[in-house]
Amino acid sequence: MRRVGDNDSVTSLGNTTTEGFRSGFACFIGRPNVGKSTLMNALVGSKVAITSSRPQTTRRAIRGIVHRPNAQLVVVDTPGLHKPKTLLGERLDSLVRSTLTEVDVIGFCVPADQPVGPGDKFIARELANVKKTPIIAIVTKTDIATPQQVAEQLLAVGRLGEFADIVPCSAADGFQVDLVGDLLIQRLPEGMALYPEGDLTDEPEQVMIAELVREAALEGVRDELPHSIAVVVDEMAPREGRTDLVDIYAHLYVERSSQKGIIIGHKGERLRAVGAAARKQIEALLGTRVYLDLRIKVLKDWQRDPKQLRRLGFYD
Ligand SMILES: Nc1nc2c(ncn2[C@@H]2O[C@H](COP(=O)(O)OP(=O)(O)OP(=O)(O)O)[C@@H](O)[C@H]2O)c(=O)[nH]1
Predict the structure, then answer these.
(1) pLDDT at position 246, please?
(2) Domain of 228?
(3) 142 lines ligand 1 (CB under 6 A)
(4) Is residue 200 part of a domain?
């Protein structure tokens, strides 16, 4: 996958301001698990953010870049907004709030298959304070709702606030994903391209790799455990004398030793499965073979510990 920096030549930006060319930033906001990351990936046409059925998968503002002949849209995927229970939760919420003030247009995601609830209303109230930025309400996951449910949801969402547009879509089957892109782009200012053609994200490679490991580890774990998992890539380098193999050393952190046991599994089976699944994804990302050395460490209550949060890359 092409990322920013893969082609360092600024001249490749092609940044002559052609008349009518639009560029700028959009962010998706919504409760955890409503499909924000999946929609961003669908718009970009590539997996730039990990997704899972566990709430609170996204922990960073990840940027995906959508290229059109007449526009460049940078989508910022934010963590799901909810009432924070830990210091990590507070940091994630403040990340969302600062993102909201920095973008040209906001996409407010509400799933079609669940009634509008207190979580959606809480976000709608927050959005009412964002005065100048247009908001497009997006009713997601239409593929798992009946037409009647979708119609009712469009009306219910309409009652949540003032929106520039309300649009139903499904990232799973592609229904109206391009239209979502068009509507967001319409709200961007005229301006030159912000990233070189072909770049799909500006996430550093090591962060994307750590995220792929976390995604694999999230598979099949429940309750509080997903929240307790963090992954850091400590080192990565091509194997000496080889051009086709990269060595990656990573740590997976959990908060308690009981969690460590769950991740490792019976005779290490689960950890091996996580490593194998992650390696496959990383090899697809890097286009080379990968040796992944994955170790587990307990970092006691890291979600509540400012020092450990910094160590894991979550800053104030
Ligand atoms: N059927 C269906 N499922 C979807 C769709 N979009 C997302 N999902 C599923 O919903 C779950 C959550 O998707 P994410 O994209 O991770 O949701 P998110 O809003 O980014 O979640 P957080 O990171 O927790 O804020 C995953 O299991 C997705 O596969 C869709 O259009 N249709």
Answers:
(1) 93
(2) 205-311
(3) no
(4) no
